[in-house]
Amino acid sequence: MTQTLGIIGAGHLASYTVAGLRNGGDNRRIVVSPRNRELSARLGRDYGCEVVASNQAVIDTADWILLAVRPEFLNPVLAECRFRGDQLVISCIAGAVPICPPCAEVKVLFGCLGSVIPLDNEE
């Protein structure tokens, strides 16, 4: 089953990520937050993403969550969000894509964008 990808932070990083995924042949459902209305609307129009009302709506809709916010916005964003225990959260905040625990499907998904770093533990 193909997982729905939710992206929190509809800025330049999210735009490049979605473009890379779509250009790499990934056609899964992608939902994005409305952080930057112009960019999120373009993601909807150009790449078939679904723009939802809030960061929490992204979390409520998606199986996998990609955090694509600037580092200084991470804590305020996380403070307002409630994740489910069955969701996979992926961070693109540091410029690489670390995933923990390792997940072959995520590695394949983001491998077309560059380096994916699977981590065996959170430390």
TrEMBL record:
Domain Pyrroline-5-carboxylate reductase catalytic N-terminal span(s) in chain numbering:
5-95
| Name this polypeptide is given | Pyrroline-5-carboxylate reductase catalytic N-terminal domain-containing protein
Q: Which UniProt keywords apply?
A: Oxidoreductase
Q: Which organism is it from?
A: Marinobacterium aestuarii
> Signal peptide position in this chain?
none
| One Gene Ontology biological process | L-proline biosynthetic process
What protein family does this chain belong to? Belongs to the pyrroline-5-carboxylate reductase family.
PANTHER family this protein is in?
Answer: PYRROLINE-5-CARBOXYLATE REDUCTASE, PYRROLINE-5-CARBOXYLATE REDUCTASE 3
Q: Is the keyword Transmembrane helix in the record?
A: no
Q: Name one GO molecular function term.
A: pyrroline-5-carboxylate reductase activity
**Which SUPFAM superfamilies does the entry link to?**
NAD(P)-binding Rossmann-fold domains
